[in-house]
Amino acid sequence: MKWFFIPRFLGIFDKSSLKETKKIFKLLRQKHRTQETVDAVIEFVHQNGGIEYADKIMAQYTQKALRLLEPFKNASVYPQMVELVQFVTMRNK
Fold it and tell me: Are residues 58 and 39 in the same domain?
């Protein structure tokens, strides 16, 4: 996934003004991003609930993955698969 699509995925443009949205799109289109550009996008994501939205979507996918594993409850690797899902989706970084 290109860096350009991350804010769109995070659903944050629904909560921001058209002016802010255009500013962020302009920053994302830059070929050579500075630390200032990256910081501005991160700030925008935080201010518009992008992290909370991503957490919500991650929790939904975690539950979906665990449901998909249920038919394999009797398999010897089931506990490790559940642990892997939880590790991948609940880690801090």
Answer: no
CA 33 vs CA 38, 81, 82: distances in Å: 7, 38, 39
CB 61 within 8 A of CB 55: no
Residue 71 has pLDDT above 70, yes or no: yes
Residue 12 pLDDT exceeds 90: no
Q: Which residue has the tokens 């995070």?
A: 10
* Domain residue limits at 15: 3-48
CA distances 49 to 20, 79, 91, Å, are 14, 33, 19
Does residue 22 or residue 6 have the better pLDDT? 22
How far apart CA 89 and CA 93 sit, in angstroms, is 10
Cβ–Cβ < 8 Å for 24, 41: yes
Extract the tokens encoding 15: 């909560």
56 plus 43 within the same structural domain: no
- Name the pLDDT band for 55 (thresholds 50, 70, 90): confident
